[in-house]
Design brief:
This protein has one domain: Alpha-Beta Plaits, CATH 3.30.70.100. By secondary structure, it is α+β, with helices and mostly antiparallel strands. The chain has a five-stranded mixed β-sheet with strand order 4-1-3-2-5, with helices on one face. A hairpin with a 5-residue loop joins strand 2 and strand 3. The chain starts with a strand and ends with a strand. It has two helices and five strands; from the N terminus they run βαββαββ.
Length: 89
Amino acid sequence: MMVEIYVEGVVQGVGFRYFTQRIAKEIGIKGFVKNLPDGRVYIVAEGSKEQLDKFMSYVKKGPSTSIVRKVTMKKMNKKEKFDNFEIVF
């Protein structure tokens, strides 16, 4: 299952992408995370429903340095295959 996630709040310049990458690797999520010009963080995550549910619980909290105000997730129809979880600059 593949989803795209948009995270809003104080989520840039606070280690959010590195936090996301660490959690994704621990859970076994594949995909990527990147900052968007509008201040949001964009995540594409691939995993089982159970893995994604666990991942989302962490994303909704974020690292202690962040303030997550809103998280939007939707399923994707893409069949892209990722080898790992990367930070895209």
